[in-house]
Specification:
Layout: E1 4-9, E2 30-34, E3 47-52, H1 64-79, E4 83-86, H2 88-97, E5 103-118, E6 131-142, E7 149-155, E8 160-165, E9 170-173, H3 181-193, E10 201-203, H4 212-223
Parallel strand pairs: 1-2, 1-3, 3-4, 4-9, 5-10
Antiparallel strand pairs: 5-6, 5-7, 7-8, 8-9
């Protein structure tokens, strides 16, 4: 029996509307589990890859979602199953492999198209330019990393934008590689309708060189990874 991609939907209310975007260019079946509605699997043998989505929740001591996915992150690391965290999922991986003090929380979010600078070579950045634009929408970021993780990309503000495990196929990105240009524009419009200050935005207009296919390649590179021995 062929293995499935496991997508952990960390949405706090309605189920993820864009989970299909995570593997639309990769021919494999997927199983989506909404963290709030269903128990997470105790055994991961049925899955080839695991993705942890973003969330409006925070990675902190009161987050039920983080408490539920932390054991799964540790199992995936132990078993060497390819794991990728996006935004909240990225922060959850870092916290699970270290502690909650690794995460910073802001008063205001960071929203918009952000320039990502590749700091060190990484499997998920294979074939990508040294810098590119990707969409961000978050209220927290990673402050420090445990010894088993390397920072592989940063933003102009020097925020850690991506990590890679030193010996396991575990990756994380602060930005949203699954966002299409349309999705990014809709997110900006939604925030603007709430009349939020412009200082909340990293880039309110889509940059001329923005190409969603570049950050999308991050996901394809991840899916090409196999289980570590």
């Amino acid at each position: 029996m062929s293995k499935k991609i496991l997508i952990i939907d960390n949405s706090i209310q309605t189920k993820c509307e864009r989970c299909s975007q995570f593997h639309r260019h990769f021919s494999s079946e997927s199983s989506v589990i909404h963290t709030i509605d269903r128990k997470l699997p105790k055994h991961l043998d049925y899955y080839s890859h695991i993705i942890l989505t973003g969330s409006a929740a925070h990675v902190n001591e009161v987050s039920d979602i983080y408490k539920r996915i932390r054991p799964l992150i540790l199992r995936a690391e132990k078993e060497g199953i390819p794991l990728m965290g996006i935004c909240f999922g990225f922060q959850a991986i870092v916290a699970a492999l270290s502690d909650l003090t690794s995460i910073d929380h802001y008063v205001y979010p960071e929203i918009g198209w952000t320039k990502i600078y590749i700091k060190h070579p990484s499997t998920i950045f294979k074939g990508l330019p040294d810098n590119f634009y990707a969409f961000e929408n978050h209220l927290s970021s990673v402050r420090t990393l445990p010894s088993q993780l390397n920072a592989t990309a940063v933003s102009l503000k020097k925020n850690i934008q991506a990590i890679e495990h030193k010996s396991k196929p575990i990756y994380g990105v602060q930005f949203h590689p699954e966002y299409t240009a349309y999705r990014g524009e809709a997110t900006v419009s939604r925030w603007l309708k709430r009349r939020v200050p412009f200082r909340w935005f990293t880039n309110i207009h889509k940059p001329p060189r923005y190409n969603p296919e570049i950050s999308e390649k991050v996901l394809n590179n991840f899916f090409e990874q196999s289980k570590s021995s």
